[in-house]
Write a structure and sequence with these properties.
204 residues, Porin
Length: 204
């Protein structure tokens, strides 16, 4: 269901871009609208160790943010929409479901501005600032309710990376680093971080 929702999100984003392009002035040049879609693989520090890394608040045990000894591996997809040289948007979905410890995993659904810093031949470093939602399973529940606690958290993400143009259509995302902030994580905050690599195709 989540993957279907993401596919619908990408479709609507692309359709909005096409609509904007259709309304552009006829004098638009090659520096105008383009849409690129890609896939990626990631490694992330979830900033949660799992049970017994919990604290007591009131009469309940709640998760405590702390760096884990187990990195999460994930797969995902991203869409870049370029309107002008300085106006670009990136949307990404990441499913960090591999190498789980105590069934802990997290999924990200983020969108925001992407700014290419400068182009050096085939290399284009960029910065980005995204916002969205992270869905996370916290593993075993020490409160004895019989089900693993889960949560959906507002997430801000800051990062950047380097894209390498391989051909007219294909580009390698050589590295993408991301630092996330979840300010309302079980009454405190958590800060996952990680890196990704990917491959993209320029649709138009």
């Amino acid at each position: 269901m989540k993957r279907i929702s993401f596919a619908l999100f990408c479709f609507l984003l692309a359709m909005g871009a096409v609509s904007a392009h259709g309304q552009a002035a006829p004098s638009a040049t090659g520096r105008g609208l383009s849409v690129t879609a890609g896939v990626m693989g990631s490694i992330f520090q979830p900033d949660f160790k799992g049970y017994p890394d919990w604290t007591v608040k009131g009469d309940q045990w709640v998760p405590t943010a702390e760096a884990s000894d187990w990195a999460l591996f994930g797969i995902g997809a991203y869409v870049d929409v370029k309107f002008t040289r300085w106006i670009q948007i990136e949307g990404e979905a990441r499913f960090s479901r591999f190498n789980q410890y105590q069934n802990i995993h997290q999924d990200n659904y983020l969108i925001g501005p992407r700014i290419p810093i400068h182009r050096y031949g085939r290399f284009t470093p960029y910065a980005k600032a995204l916002v969205g939602i992270t869905s996370m399973d916290m593993g075993p529940n020490p409160n004895g309710t019989g089900s693993d606690p889960t949560g959906r958290f507002l997430t801000a993400a800051y990062g950047g990376g380097v894209d390498v143009k391989l051909t007219r259509r294909f580009s390698l995302r050589a590295v993408d680093v991301e630092y996330q902030q979840m300010p309302e994580w079980f009454g405190s905050s958590a800060s996952p971080y990680g890196a990704s690599v990917g491959l993209s195709y320029k649709i138009f």
